[in-house]
Amino acid sequence: MIPGFVQGIGMAMFFIPSSMLAYESLPKHLFDGAAGLYSVMRTIGGSVGIATIGLLLTRRADYHWRILGEHVTPDNPNVHAWLNNRGLSLGDPGAAPLLVGETMKQAQVMAFGDMYLLVALLTLALAPIVLFMRKPAKRGAPQPAE
Q1: What's the predicted TM-score (pTM) here?
Q2: Contacts (Cβ under 8 Å, ≥6 apart) of 143
Q3: What is the full DSSP assignment across 89-112?
Q4: DSSP for 23-77, written as a single string
Q5: pLDDT digit string (tens) for 54-84?
Q6: How would residue 141 be classed by pLDDT, with cut points 50, 70 and 90?
Q7: Which residues fall within 8 angstroms of residue 138, CB to CB, at 6 or more apart?
Q8: Separation CA 45–CA 92 (nearest Å)
């Protein structure tokens, strides 16, 4: 519940000002068309972003799967200790599926961590763009000559 709450606050802090900036320089008679275009572009941007993150997530999970899998060997004493804690040995028929499942889970967790880090770094890198935005003019106030 808490991550959803934080996400909702973050989305409100982004989408409300970006909507205001999108419409502030338009005459009122163009608002309907601008709203449609803004909505389509936001939807396309979100879809492309989700697809890109999904692709990167899959690739990172595969990468971590390969790295972790290199360490799941009969020579690794940690593998034997992990199986012993579950009452199994390497020769038990249930050991291999258990090791595969755990390796897959850990690879997914590491891939999600990579994606959260990537999104955080992109957010920090793009945040200074706000400093270059024009301050919206007050409605009814004379526009400065450009």
Answers
A1: 0.74
A2: 137
A3: -TTSTTHHHHHHHHHHHHHHHHHH
A4: HTTS-GGGHHHHHHHHHHHHHHHHHHHHHHHHHHHHHHHHHHHHHHHTT-STT-H
A5: 999 999 999 999 999 999 999 999 999 999 9
A6: low
A7: none
A8: 49
Residue 139 corresponds to which tokens in the numbers above?
Answer: 């409605």
Distance CA 100, CA 98 (A): 5
The string over 33-63, giving b where at least 16 C-beta atoms fall within 10 Å of a residue's C-beta and e elsewhere, is: eeeeeeeeeeeeeeeeeeeeeeeebeebbee
| DSSP code for 140 | T
- Residue 55 confidence (pLDDT): 98
DSSP assignment letter at 146: -
pLDDT tens profile 86-137: 999 999 999 999 999 999 999 999 999 999 999 999 989 988 887 887 776 6
